[in-house]
Amino acid sequence: MNILHAFSINNVGLLHYVGTALIVTVLVVTIRRLFFDPLAKIPGPWYAKWTDVVLKIKSLSATGPIYVDKLHEKYGPMVRLGPSQVGVTDISAAKKIHTVKGDYVKTDYYLGLGYRKENVINTQDPETHRRHRKLLSQPISERSLKAMEPQIEEKIRLTIKRMGEEMKTRGAADVYKWWMFMATDTIGQLTFGESFHMLERGEVNTEIKDIQLIGAVSSIGTQLKAVMPILYHIRLPGFTDSLKTMSDRQSTSAIAKLQKLGEEMESKDQLLFTKLVKGLTMEGESLTGTELVYNAEGYIAAGSDTTSNTLTYSTWALCRNPELRDQLVKELENLPADFTDEHLKALPYLNHVIQEALRRFPVIPNGLPRYVPKEGAELGGYWLPGRTTVMTQAWSMHRNPEVFPNPDEFNPARWENPTKEMKDSMMAFGGGTRICLGMHLAYIELRLGLAHFFRTFPRARVSTLEGMKDDDMIQALHVVASPQSHRCLIEVL
Ligand code: HEM
């Protein structure tokens, strides 16, 4: 027998064994997935047992929440979204996931956000989170923020002035743009003691352009963790620099600003980071310089378009419905000329408007993914093994017609006597240990922003200038949702 002949006989034998092993493996995996997988009983589309690729594609094309919502509509409050992913709209299950115990930790989705810069937002380690949160909480508490109110109000007054100027020169003000400048300049001022001055310049500066681009790539990173190291180093088409270059540039700028804040501390002792720059220690714990910088960067990203897009949708929803607008204007007429946020907290209608905008137009519409603790858990009537990803999305929780009748209607009056289910279903700021840290700051900006806007422009309405129409305001459901046309033109009569 020549060598070639012997080799081909061996090869056929080998192929036979490999083929049989492959078939057996596929059979075992299939039987396990279909009959013995603990998630097999959870309803959902057939392909979700095998892959989450559809969810990823929909999320990347900014329609993820709509896709998941349709599945909930078809299959119920617990729906299989992938081999190890489950969508949850069951209220008690959602409460269990987002508890103060914090035993459902954030998933790898968050590694994309603030890539390679661990901070209070993206950390998966409960101990790191506890320490960061403890040190960051006090300066951003409702009580501490009181001292910062004059600086916030100054930014809002400037915003209203700039909107008024644009209404005169252009015929309408793009409130989407101005609210974005306001929220970004405000969080810059409160974090670094230095505004980005976009309100004065009327345009986005390079630093914020970097942050927006980093945000855009990060939303890809949340879905495609494996490609992130590549995306991080290469320059994508349309980008002037790689993510790494932009990200390093952002940190260099943040370090310089925090150093300056440290030098000017005496005159700026009322800000979010002053005590931390001074080396705040609580019960022997503190944040390192790098942790401080990464958290400061996190604040700029988390505290700008979230607040501004909520303000944009509140403004638009009132301007397109004069009856609702007039109700707010009437309430605001009773305010003293020198009103403060304390007066606004007591205004029922204003607060119903804000609550309804947070419900109807959630700016973080996607599921907030968490891992089931390693010992597994009973959720919504099903047993889920440890490390299953569970996702509770505001987009669906806020649209449950049994909890919110006519969910698509913007109706602030529904908050006059809210039911327990309504309150428990609200996920606009997340929940439990990971609830939004900037929530009180956001509320101050929302209250002051709307009050000043509608006192200055009581007859404001949606403009039709430059072809502006309702479709412009359809939410593009990215990590942070925004109007799909990136504009919202408002005019005065
Ligand atoms: C209307 C405005 C805002 C909305 C709707 C909003 C929404 C949210 C949501 C839903 C989460 C939870 C994310 C998750 O669990 O995955 C969150 C977390 C967070 N937000 Fe906000 N946010 C707003 C404004 C702000 C502002 C102004 C800041 C300023 C610093 C901020 C800072 C943070 C931080 C630091 C976290 C992480 C908290 C943690 O994990 O412990 N947010 N926000």
Ligands, ions, cofactors: protoporphyrin IX containing FE
Number of strands: 11
Question: Mean pLDDT, as a whole number?
Answer: 94
The CATH homologous superfamily name of the largest domain equals: Cytochrome P450
Query: How many whole angstroms does the radius of gyration measure?
Result: 25 Å
Uncertain residue ranges = none
Q: How much strand content do the residues show?
A: 5-15%
Structural class: alpha+beta
Number of helical elements: 21
* Form type: globular
- Kindly state the percentage of residues in helix: 40-55%
Distance linking N and C termini: 98 Å
Instruction: Report the major sheet.
Output: 4 strands, mixed
Strand order of the largest sheet: 1-2-7-4
CATH architecture of the largest domain: Orthogonal Bundle
CATH class of the largest domain: Mainly Alpha
| Total tally of structural domains | 2
CATH topology of the largest domain: Cytochrome p450
How do the helices and strands line up, and which of them pair or pack?
Layout (H helix, E strand, L loop, with lengths): L2 H34 L16 H8 L3 H12 L2 E5 L2 E4 L2 H7 L28 H12 L4 H5 L2 H22 L2 E2 H18 L5 H4 L4 H18 L4 H6 L9 H21 L10 H4 L11 H14 L2 H15 L2 H12 L7 H5 L2 H13 L9 E2 L5 E3 L2 E3 L4 E3 L2 H4 L22 H6 L13 H18 L3 E3 L12 E2 L5 E2 L5 E4 L1
Parallel strand pairs: 2-7
Antiparallel strand pairs: 1-2, 3-11, 4-7, 5-6, 8-11, 9-10
The structure holds protoporphyrin IX containing FE.
